[in-house]
User: What shape does this take?
Amino acid sequence: MGAGHGHRLHFHGHSAVHRAPAHLKIPALLAFVLVVVATPREWFAVYAVHLAVLLGVIAVSRVPLRYLAPRMVVEVPFVVFALLMPFVATGPRTEVLGLTVSEPGLLAGWALLAKGTLGVLASLTLAATTEPADVLRGLRRLRLPSLLVEIMGFMVRYLDVVTADLTRMLTAMRSRGVDPRSPRHWPVLARSLGSLFIRSYERGERVHLAMVSRGYTGELPDLADLGRGVPAHHHHAQAAS
Amino acid sequence: MHVPDGFLDAPTSVATGAVAAAGVAIALRRARDELDDRTAPMAGLVAAFVFAGQMINFPVGAGTSGHLMGGALAAVLVGPWAAVLCISVVLLVQALFMADGGVTALGTNVTLLALVGAGVGWLVFRGLQAVLPRHLAMVAPAAAIGALASVPVAATVFTGLFAMGGVAPVEVGTVLTAMLGWHTLIGVGEALITGLVVGSIVAVRPDLVYGARRLLAARELEIRTPASTPEVTA
Assistant: This one.
């Protein structure tokens, strides 16, 4: 349970993209994706430029595409939607490979696919090159309300602990012949989730008491070392700022 | 139901972002009333719990699977404002660390899942509590119906956003029918799981369930005298 609290997507490296501060990377990601979303769908060449820029950043980061590609599966449900688009959309029909499809639907499907893919790939690049603690520090510098950053910090810190709790419960269920996915066994699953909630809540109470006993007054002095160790001088520099 | 980038046009994404920011700002003030100075650690742990709950997929049919959204569940368990914060943080973490749900669609996702999901779930839950008998056994069914209502309402709001800023030339009626049909089904799953989970917690630790606090506060201390000589058991 005391294992690393790094998240699953991070790809360790020392490239310029890895070293760039998170409070620049996050707005850059947001700006890039906003530009992609606002690009008219007929400007095919511009999408090629977007892709080239993104691939350039990935190349500089030295995160292999082989690492990012399998992680793009989160996109799949919307790929299905995009592929369906030419068939359900309205408008004039056209022939593609012997199938009658809607012309604006075809264009819309292409746009969904292109924008969604660029968005996912760009987000994956941020996640792969930025440690969670750096993201938190960046969000704080970007003036995200500190309570929100703190909640996020605690979530990231205990995410692996809570999911590992759940994994052990699911293993215990399966070893007793229960299939958590089957609605027939939902009452068992629900009791496990109920006890997971109680465990998480009580863990939160213990964490809070431990913090109070160390002088917590409702405001964390510094989030820099949440999730990983930070050299002492760095810590003081942050706390002083 | 995590909306990706490019599903809605840029103006709609920016507008929902503003709505989400306003909602979260109010929740930040109000959540302190629900969780006092424990807010940060408690909401963080509950967010981790919601995330873990969302990892369990269940088959919806036609080869696809759905997962718990958890808005109504979190609202009943920790209170509506804390729930808004928890779900918003879950979405933020998923967007930034897991590329699940687009970064430009974050406002849309927070509006739909946190504000509408938790809000509708809570309002229906409270409404039912006012009507139903004041009994602990009624908390779980009320939570289930709250969850049942929250999913199709969120789907309808999404359809409204799609009508305003959708990028695909699909008739709104078609979208509405598909979304409502599909999400009523998902809502039934959400309702069953929510009801069962809340029921199991109310049975063990009713004091942890925010939605049951009023009922517990109204309880009077009852000192029962044993009917016969009590047996001493180890």
Observations:
- The first helix of chain A runs from residue 16 to 19.
- Residues 16-130 of chain A form one domain.
- The CA atoms of residues 46 and 69 of chain A lie 22 Å apart.
